[in-house]
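Researcher: I'm comparing several assemblies side by side, and this is the next one on my list. It has 720 residues spread over two chains. Same procedure as the others: predict the full complex and return the structure.
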Amino acid sequence: MCGIVGLVGDRGVGPARPSEAAVLAGLDAVQHRGPDDSRCDRVGSATFGTARLAMVDRPTSAQPMRDAAGRHLLAFNGEIYNFRELRTELEREGRRFATDGDTEVLLHALIHWGVAALSRLKGQFAFALWDDVTSELLLARDRFGIVPLHWTHTAGGGVAFASEVKSLRAMGLHPRLSLSDVIDVGVLWGTHPGRSVYAGVETVRPGGYVRIGAAGVERTSYWQFRYAAERDPAPFADQAARLRDLLGRAVERRVPVYGDPAVLLSGGLDSSAVLALLRGAHPTGRITSYSIQFAQAALDEEPFQALAATEFDTDHMAILCGDRSVAATLVEAVQHAEQPLTRTASASSIALAATIEAHGTRAVLSGEGADELFCGYDLFKIAAIRDAWSRDPDSDTLPAALTDVLAQQSHLGRAVERAFYEQGIDRRDDPLFSHLNRWSSSFRITQYLAAEHRAGLTVDTVLARVRDGLPAAYLGWSAVEQAQYLEVTYFLASSLLASQCDRPYMAHSIEARYPFLDEDVVDFALTLPLESKLAGLQEKAVLKRAVGDDVPAAIRDRVKQPYTAPEGDVFRSVPGAELIDAVLAPAALREHGVFDPKRVAWLVNKLRQGRTSFHDDLALLWIVSVEILADTYGVA
Amino acid sequence: MTDAATDVTRRLRDLILERLVPLDEDELADDAPLVDEILDSLGIAEVAVFIEEEIDRPLEPSEEVRSTFASVDSVVAFIVANRP
């Protein structure tokens, strides 16, 4: 991937700063995304810059790229995996090419087909295209928002865009934290599609494009996460065979042109499946696997990682993360994520990315996306049980089933958890039924806001913005599939793929690729009936069947363990405690005015006195990361 | 309210305000919805332990339901009704 930056408008950021200087400053801020080349070009009133991480056609596909007529200018970040097929099609229709890469194919495709080209693309991408004849800027992003793209209006009447917000700041703009979005990201564990946590800064929504021209700003989706009206009627075994075939092709498409293939290996089913399919396609080639191990036994998956690495004969490298190392990397993780964190996993990812970079690997395949598409999280089982419970509130077996599911993960072993999940059981008609518990609980983090920010704020204030964005078809879906939609829209897009993957890995110029988010795999997944994904309380049923013979049985049959990193204990370590002393000191908190120093001190005291809850840890991480960002960007 | 209930109320409120939520004394009403708005799951578990110590026996699964933990008042009422 790359970093892209641009400015459209004759007056640039402002009269005092020429466009090219601003764009070059923006590029400097994202050199980590593209260490191979850094260039700037101007067509008409558009100045684009690209910091390039050259994964395809290193010799000739320099960016930003103009068309032969000099009318269009393209800055492109990402990969188009089907560029060869598209090129053949375009050549049949008279297009001629001067390079061997995907950038020129994208440029021709956009010129030839216009925005209709977007639905033909298979890949992970964000780009900006300028048309100097129509004076129109087109910004677009892949289906799941794997690749970031922000944009904003400038004081000079133009438009600036960038892969990361730090570029906008470096260009001379002044993005400040938007408190309502900061709150929403803490409660929802993700941003609303199209929004960022910075006032006036938008993101191009996943699967969407923004067209900015004389007629104004048009925000449109070219793809949306929607289940097929008619579900696949094929027998389960046939569905599994089809899924395996599609996944195999998706893995193949993502093998890098340069260097040996590599896999992020968690030790779970998804990454092991990716590795198994990769090994199947490359029986004798060198494959590297990279893992994170945790010092805490409860979090560590090392035995399963070792099993997969041995089974598939990889060069395996692992880093050991503990409370101290996570705490030591946390500030860097927040600064790269550019939004408040709700999990410390970003810090572990950055540490692993540094190891991968040192090993010379440029691209890694990841198993992310499978849990959302095939119902891997306990959240989906809980949604199914609570849905049934809501229709049979006197049932004894359903609460017992819930307790069983929770016992697998929480180790609390107390039926008292039922009291928690019984909350909202009488609100099945609420479209957000599956997430009401999680989001209502997370809303407790807002009790640490300063009094003036708490006043009038309710969980329904936050949820109203979610409800406003629900698609019309949503109400016709089951509780579990509604939950899938919400996970894809909030958690996957802006927490998992952004804060936990793109930002930490690109901090070290590492491109992560996601076979489970392949267009063909996703299109097929959206045709599957729910029972193929969640069979009773068996998660990822069709995936387990599809790759069941490929991965070791011990991995296939293990109880799913969500990828987690140390949370509260991070702040009990020496560097964590030092971070808290520096960032959460009453004077520092008063400077930004976001949080109530007395209440935050109560939380810090609780941390240091003894046990903290999941939501205490969530609040601490959110507060710390908001304060780190406020130091850099300020608060609107 | 009996003296026993008053005493339990005071100790329960102390537990909640000192260890479970960052509220001031006047911000916790005795009829406020503990499960829905005040306590998280760990908080509920701590209140459960408090109840068990007060009634000197483990809670039955049928007693570990929302209605038991609904508010300070309901917790106190449960304890008073189940004390040995």
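Model: For your comparison table: Chain A touches chain B at residues 412, 414-420, 422-423, 440-441, 444, 447-448, 596, 598-599, 602-603, 606, 611-616 (CB under 8 Å).
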